[in-house]
Fold:
Amino acid sequence: MKQLSRRSFLRGAGGAVLTLPWLESLAGAVPGGARPAQRMAFFYVPIGVVRRGFFPGEQDAVLPKFIGDMKEIPRKAKIPVGMQPLQLTPTLEPLKGVKEKVAMITGMDRTFQNGTDVHAQCASCFLSSAPPNVIKSSAWPLDRTLDQLVGDRVGTVTPFRTLELSCNSHRDNKESIYFDNISWYGTGHVAPSLRDPRLAYRRLFGTEETKAFRDITDLVLDDARSMRRKLGYVDQQKFAEYFESVRMIETQMDRLEKMKGELAEVTMEEPPDSRLPRGEYIRLMGDLMVVALQTGLTRVATMMVGPERWDTPYLYDGLFERPMSHHQMSHNQKDFAEKLLRLDRFHMEQFAYLVERMEGVEESDGTSLLDNTLFTYGSGLGDGATHQYNDLPILVAGSGGGKVRTGGHLNCADGTPLANLWLTQARVMGLEMERFADSTGPVGALLV
Structure:
């Protein structure tokens, strides 16, 4: 037992392997009781939000008319600059149980570079924010993204330097890669995202199929039983919870794959993927991300909830009677305001679910996985109807190892670049950077 480490593997018949979570019984194998590793993750939501449901003080704002080109909209809410108490607006209410572990950051802007599509640029450049017209080899102000730079620093000791996930299951290729990816190795070089839960599962856990696929927990069961007998009572419970979470992922995958097969045999106008339950799909991909961060498979992950401007519809669990296009609805907030507000809350519920999952994972020093993670919710548009790039909706859950303030609302001065937040997060993750993209300095009020 003393020879096992936190990144030890269980291996079973068929070549399957499973990484272990942190177990107190194996603490002797962790040199000097090392502090838990810091992690970074992103939860990107397309098309912006309905502002009066998301932002404090804007509940009575007039619904905006559709504006084709990007427009800078002045703030409607007069909130003092600095840290304020966090007010849970209707869209933010799902965060009630983890309110003290979340910081809301408003006033962050990106600069739009003329000549490129507003939706493509807001997604592809969200994590790079290069100054306009500096990148000469592309029409987009797109450079190596923050997650990749942090992965260069903290990903050298993990099996996966970074992990890119997407919840766009459609195969109709309606838009270019710039509408559908937020992680980039560099200008013009996308970091491909995993979109199929089964493929993501096999890549993360190294499973190999036999003639009849057996789930990974069965493949390693003999080794697991032998090991569990050597663990203390608390670790036995944690071990069982961990295996149950992996089993839950497998069960969800089986359900979705069966449903997809059945839908493929039905004649309908929309693609079969449009009728898959969105909530289950998003949570499943999120569960894979959480387990990868928990076990040390990676320390940096991005998750794109959906593509920008992709008009192929989705059926959102319990929200609508038929598949709907988020993008098309955003262009007519007057007629679809209530539906859009429900959709914004739906996305927040998925984010809150993952925040709570992270909070429930205990680390070696008694803190939680969330405590040691910077988990950022954000969108590249402040509003889908006006296509504004200013005052973006941003939340940060977790304190990055106790280095970031949570439980409040930080309102930044007008014109504060979003890159200031990325510079701050990069430094929290250990990067010695004077500047990131078009940043003007770190967000000092966010730091402990």
